[in-house]
Design goal:
Elements: E1 29-31, E2 34-36, E3 43-47, E4 54-59, H1 63-82, H2 85-101, H3 103-114, H4 118-135, H5 138-141, E5 145-150, E6 153-161, E7 164-168, H6 178-187, E8 191-195, H7 202-214, E9 221-223, H8 228-236, E10 240-246, H9 249-261, E11 265-269, E12 274-278, H10 284-296, E13 306-312, H11 319-327, H12 347-362, E14 366-369, E15 388-391, H13 398-401, E16 408-414, H14 417-426, E17 429-430, E18 432-436, H15 440-449, E19 454-457, E20 473-474, H16 487-493, E21 495-503
Parallel strand pairs: 7-8, 7-10, 8-9, 10-11, 12-13, 12-18, 13-16, 15-16, 18-19
Antiparallel strand pairs: 1-2, 3-4, 5-6, 6-21, 14-15, 17-20
Helix pairs in contact: 2-4, 2-7, 3-4, 3-7, 4-6, 10-11
This protein binds nicotinamide-adenine-dinucleotide.
Nicotinamide-adenine-dinucleotide (NAD) binds near residues 198, 228 and 431.
Keywords: NAD, Oxidoreductase
Family: Belongs to the aldehyde dehydrogenase family.
Organism: Zasmidium cellare
Amino acid sequence: ASATTTAATSPAQYPTSHDQVSQPIDTTNFLDNQFVPSKATQWIDLHDPATNNLVTRVPQSTDEELKAAVDSAEKAFPAWKATSLLARQQIMFKYVALIREHWDRLAASITLEQGKTFADAKGDVLRGLQVAETACGITTQMQGEVLEVAKDMETRSYREPLGIIAAICPFNFPAMIPLWTIPVATVTGNTCIIKPSERDPGAAMILAELAEKAGFPPGVINIIHGSAKTVDFIIDEPRIKAISFVGSNKAGEYIFARGSAQGKRVQANLGAKNHAAVLPDCNKNQALNAISGAAFGAAGQRCMALSTLVFVGETKDWAPEIAERAKALSMNGGFEPGADLGPVISPQAKKRIEDIIGTAEKEGATIVLDGRGQKPEKYPNGNWVGPTIIANVTKDMTCYKEEIFGPVLVCLNVPTLDEALELINENEYGNGTAIFTSSGATALKFQKEIEAGQVGINVPIPVPLPMFSFTGNKKSVAGGGANTFYGKPGLQFYTQQKTVTSFWRSEDAVSTRAKVDMPTQS
Ligand code: NAD
């Protein structure tokens, strides 16, 4: 079976419930602004995580299709590079307006394929849209620098596009993460190839449809599908100049090493274990609400989810109060009104998360709230894990050492702030962290001494807005975090600097002898 696209074509067609799709339509590639059915022989079944009904089949794009995407992006590049900055900006304005217009439709696709609640899916789209909105300021961002070195000599720097960029995306933010690449890469004059997660490519397909409507010429944005085979193609294709990867350490460290060895630019955001230190002087109610929301929202499947709590001093007795708040959350199908968290992505993820909870029990931790075996009545076949709180955890336990990526909060106890700092700094990941306190001096000490890339002070998920950059640290980024996503470093990643020094002397040269010593312009 094959047809045009997973993207519904009118608002009436987008899903508003988890009802079984009567005739699942195969996901297509997007090449030269066309939805092209794949000739794949291997297909990946995509199931609604709330029901495990089949939603679509995602192709393992063929070698010819992968090559066709690169041919298309290569062909489009010279004219796109030569398109005036203001014309590219106009297309971006239209793109931004269209994404806002199709916001609900994009979110519905995410809820159906990824499982997160509709309200949360709208946030996924909005965080990506904000990157696109900021990219509209390209006319200022692309300005170079100029220095008059002498009265007849000047040096200028320009930013030029690299050529073809590829983005390899994870399952947990099907709209936001493609939108970390598409706006910044294209507005700066590159063409790009997006490989969405094979587990939820629907939002990326809608983004492609909107890109065509906004006026992006054929080939500027292409979409191909598949898993490791497609990734290897991207790494090895010499015409692709840069790779933007977001996902797990296993895949990302491999892509960074092999891509860098081929001379490509690679930016790679990886896994996390985000800790929050809770101090006795914090605003307790605000902190406990913030912690429950950040631990269990999106079923804990955010790279900035707050998965690890460090109770300082007497706050160790607060776990039951967090459990009360967690119990009040509604786990349900993402389209259901009032749903707070949906299912996890797959039956395998559910099993892995439950197994880790089992290890905590065996290793001597206290299960304060156990989400295993819970399910909403209406969706008995989904991948459900309810909010889980594990207390009295120690550093050697499996539940502390592994990224759980589910609705599980692990809690450790330390007597002082210094020990909290030491514990968090010792952890190999350094994506985000937070402190809850009402003391400015304590917050400042934490801010200065903590080794994590994104710090929240009474803010549980401190994801930087697009005018800043997503600044993970330690094992949460490959390559030491030199190439971060969006903001000024994002612009830097997608552009090559060129520096031109020119000399225009009005008088004729007097000497006829060539100078051979090192020019120093002094
Ligand atoms: P994943 O690594 O399994 O998949 C990400 C992408 O890599 C997919 O497109 C997939 O097809 C590809 N891939 C998977 N295995 C591969 C392999 N062996 N070889 C080559 N390519 C491979 O990640 P995921 O499960 O989709 O996403 C969850 C992970 O992403 C978590 O670890 C989470 O912390 C991380 N994440 C990090 C950030 C961040 O900004 N730091 C943001 C979102 C997600």
